[in-house]
Amino acid sequence: MASRDDIKFLSNPKIGNQRKKYCRFRKFGIKYIDYKDPDFLTQFINAQGKILPRRISGNSLKYQRKVASAIKRARHLAMLPYVTDLLK
Amino acid sequence: MRNYEVTFIVDPVLSGDEIKATAQNYVEELKSHGATIVHNDEMGLRQLAYPINKRTSGVYYCVEVQVPNGEFVNKIELAMRRDDRIMRFLTYGLDKYGVKYNEDKRAGKIGKRKPKVEADADVPKGVTKTLGKPKKQAPAKKEAVQTQAKVSETKAAVAEVASEEEE
């Protein structure tokens, strides 16, 4: 039988306290998102090259729109792929 | 006046001179439409994220221009569409933040986004520099203050003397 102390660490103790998501553009005062900077934009796409939703990235609506259009411009200029696999 | 960014990809199969001539051709054409070239950024040969016309790489150019109106856009885009040497192009109207961003980028202020590790590595140097500078500057300032103080003292003394003489 496992004692009470062993049971305590069977689940992740940090699982309960969720970290609050925030919009990095608002927080750090970034006003312009460059479509020519694919390394920066890869933070907002998943391994298939899809744009991450706000619910995951935490962006405010205003900057999510700007991020999305910047990614689409980068895709047009072949700086980011339209479809891919194992991007990261 | 409006600011635009004309980005285009030149076919890398051409020789180096031809690529440069093509880019220069469009810069000249922009000028002929009354644009002033703010900056001509040659981004160089880059790997494409996906093949275009069976090419896997391209030579990127980004020209930032200031123009009185947006009439040139259709003309230059038509010219680029007809040109086989241009693989892709994008004309983008910059807002004030975009203009500022490009200025800062040229001044080297925006390296902080991508190379965060480098910025961290530079911190110790910066600290030593900032530590070093005040030591040098501080005495000078003190001296200046002292000299000013002396001057004011002497002025005061002169004034006292003058007042005494008047009496």
The top level CATH class name of the domain at 2-110 in chain B: Alpha Beta
Indicate the mean pLDDT of chain A: 87
What profile does the largest beta sheet of chain A have? none
Number of strands of chain B: 4
Helical segment count of chain B: 4
Q: Main beta sheet of chain B, described?
A: 4 strands, antiparallel
CATH level 3 topology of chain A: 30s Ribosomal Protein S18
How would you name the CATH homologous superfamily of chain A? Ribosomal protein S18
Rounded radius of gyration of chain B (Å): 29 Å
- Architecture (CATH level 2) name of chain A: Irregular
Order of helices and strands of chain B: EHEEHEHH
Structural class of chain A: mainly alpha
Task: Present the secondary structure layout.
The complex is a heterodimer of chains A (88) and B (167).
Chain A: H1 4-7, H2 24-28, H3 38-41, H4 54-57, H5 61-76
Chain B: E1 2-10, H1 16-32, E2 36-52, E3 55-67, H2 72-82, E4 86-94, H3 96-106, H4 116-166
Antiparallel strand pairs in B: 1-3, 1-4, 2-3
Provide a descriptive summary of the structure in words:
- The complex is a heterodimer of chains A (88) and B (167).
- Chain A has 88 residues and is mainly alpha-helical.
- Helices cover 38% and strands 0% of the residues of chain A.
- Chain A has one domain: Irregular (30s Ribosomal Protein S18).
- Chain A contains five helices and no strands.
- The model of chain A has no long low-confidence stretch (mean pLDDT 87).
- With 167 residues, chain B is of the alpha+beta class.
- Chain B has a four-stranded antiparallel β-sheet.
- In chain B, strand 2 (36-52) and strand 3 form a beta hairpin.
- The longest helix of chain B is centred in the C-terminal third of the chain and has 51 residues, at 116-166.
- At the A-B interface, helix 3 and helix 5 of A face strand 2, strand 3, strand 4 and helix 3 of B.
Summarize the structure.
Helix content of chain A is 38%, strand content 0%. Chain A has helices at residues 4-7, 24-28, 38-41, 54-57, 61-76. With 167 residues, chain B is of the alpha+beta class.
